[in-house]
Amino acid sequence: MRIAYKEALKAFEEDEVPVGCVIVKDNKVIAKAHNQKEKKNCAVSHAEIECIKKAARKLDNWNLKGCTIYVTLEPCMMCTGALINSRIDRIVYACRDPKGGALVSNVRIKEISGLNHYPLYEEGPVEKECSELLKSFFRNKRQKA
Amino acid sequence: MRIAYKEALKAFEEDEVPVGCVIVKDNKVIAKAHNQKEKKNCAVSHAEIECIKKAARKLDNWNLKGCTIYVTLEPCMMCTGALINSRIDRIVYACRDPKGGALVSNVRIKEISGLNHYPLYEEGPVEKECSELLKSFFRNKRQKA
After folding, report:
1. B44, A63: Cβ pair inside 8 Å?
2. B20-51: buried (b, 16+ CB within 10 Å) or exposed (e) per residue?
3. How far apart are CA A38 and CA B100, in angstroms?
4. How far apart (Å, rounded) are the C-alpha atoms in residues A56 and A63?
5. Which of B44, B83, B104 to mutate to test the interface with A (most CBs of A within 10 A)?
6. pTM of the predicted structure, to 2 decimals
7. How far is A40 from chain B (nearest CA, A)?
8. What is the maximal distance between C-alpha atoms in chain B?
9. For an interface test with B, which of A99, A107, A108 has the most B Cβ atoms less than 10 Å from its Cβ?
10. Cα A50 to chain center, whole Å?
11. Which of these, A4, A19, A56, B127, could form a disulfide with A35 (CB 3.0-4.6 Å)?
12. Can you tell me the ipTM of this complex?
């Protein structure tokens, strides 16, 4: 999660909502990415989507079985759906997103029946730093506005 | 929806799950795409995601306000989330996806509170052709298996 946090810092420096992630397989980081929505001017370019694309390219396989994603914020509906579609084994997130989170917050995947894959998920370390970084980003935004 | 269906036919010919879509603004098609999951070897490359990316590039704006997407199959959780994130006005789908659909089937967005955007959605025309194309694709797959 430390590497994911460093990715989130990159997003912060680029004036993007500071979210970062890494995908790990067999104890090796195979992909890392940060949110690039503003830079790429595309609503799809969340950290997780960028990271899934990189991991699939690296493995030459859309199926990310055997992989874990470490992400600094609970994934939104789009990213949770993408992680399900990619058949990732496990999602570790640093802090919850009460508004947009789609694992345990706004959408709770345990309550959705019939998904074709249910990744394991858990809250992980570095929560305070990841959450403070997000708060600081939105505080700056409000002050500028 | 006829153009979306033609896109789905392209996917069929490329041995991809046959889903196609177009994004329309001010009565003009600004983007069209078909499912490219196998070709791009990436779980993210559904028709809607490819189409959102093209539309955002065309408009030079991640925000697809004022746009409608016509898609041959009810979007999955990832694509519905992406359409919400892109603030699209309206989703017209030809046929429902009882297993993976995330508008009115497996996930019902009306029942999720607190999303930051609720696109309008409706079932549209060309249902039979779009549904037959999907059935034919999966029938061929089973026969080959």
Report:
1. no
2. bbbbbbeeeebbbbbbbbeebbbbbbbbbbbb
3. 30
4. 7
5. B44
6. 0.96
7. 8
8. 45
9. A107
10. 9
11. A19
12. 0.95
Q: How far apart are CA A107 and CA B6, in angstroms?
A: 34
Residue B46 to residue B35: CA distance in whole angstroms: 5
β-bridge partners, A33: A21
Q: Cα dihedral sign for B130, B131, B135, B136? A: negative
Nearest to A44 by CA among B24, B88, B66: B88
Which secondary-structure segment (H or E) carries A115?
none
Q: What is the residue type of B45?
A: S
Residues 6+ apart with CB under 8 A from A14: A34, A36, A38, A39
Distance from CA of A44 to the nearest CA of B (A): 6
Q: Hey, how many other C-beta atoms are within 10 angstroms of the C-beta on A2?
A: 11
Q: What is the pLDDT of residues A21-61, one digit of tens each?
A: 999 999 999 999 999 999 999 999 999 999 999 999 999 99
